[in-house]
Each structure stands twice: as C-alpha cells, then as structure tokens.
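Page 47, continued from p. 46.
Same chain as before, 163 aa.
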Amino acid sequence: MTETPQRNRPDSPGSTSGGDEGGQSQFAKRGGGAPATRGRTTIADGVVEKIAGLAARDVVGVHAMGSGLSRTFGAMRDRVPGGGKSVTRGVKAEVGESQTALDLEIVVDYGVSIRDVAREVRENVIAAVERMTGLEVVEVNIAVSDVKLPDEEDEDEPEPRLQ
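Result:
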C-alpha cells in the first residue's frame, strides 16, 4: 500500500483541524477575520437607479419612465451621437449603508390597471434591487405622470430619416 504525500494547503474558514492553534483558522490569524468582513462596500445612487429603471421597464403596461419634459429632453439626447438611452430617467434613489428608498415616475399604456401595474413595478423593483445589492428597499414611491393613448405619437421614438 502506497501513501500519497500530504500537500500543505490552508484550512478553509471556520475549520479547526490541522495546525491551528487554539482552534482559530489561518484567516483569523493573518488578517483579523473572515475575508468577507475585511473592508466595506458602498453602492452609488446611480447603480440602484439603473437596476430599478431596468426592472420597472420590464413590467407589462409601463410605456415609459419620467415626466413629459424629461422624456422630451431624453428623446433629443438619444438623437445625439453617443447620447444613448438613459435607463435612469424617471428614477431617483436615496442609498444609505444598508437601506434604500426609491421614487419612480412612469407612463402607463392606456387600458391597463394602474393599480396592478404599480404593484408589479414595486414588486419587480424591490426584488431586483435587493437581490443585486443586498440593500433593504424600505419604500418604492410610484408617480404615474401620464397615460399613453393608442393614437398618440411616441415622442421617445425618433422620426424615420427616410420616407
């Protein structure tokens, strides 16, 4: 019977076997705690705003985000080369150390239940933000600023260049 040589490797966090003095892991001896507890992570307001904006737009019945004025300026910005669409339009976040609060301004499609759309937006936004950031969402305030009628022109879509 042949024995394989034992390789030296650090013990996993929380392990109390093999070479630890007093039951402490090598992580505790070297750096003063588990790796996850060394340092802090901060999340910018803009990050939460992007996550919330994308999550809100995923809900059926949400036509656009933002007030009429911000959508008009956004449509002009979208036409400028390099302008791109702003996913944070209509979203405002306040981020603390462990909690966040959001204000959303949406435009809904005509014929949908505003109450149902608002509930679905709230649920989708909370789930996405909490899953991606680990922050507790304490409130999501939704302001419905307009209803998109079927016969209205869409100001977010640029006119075709060729006719």
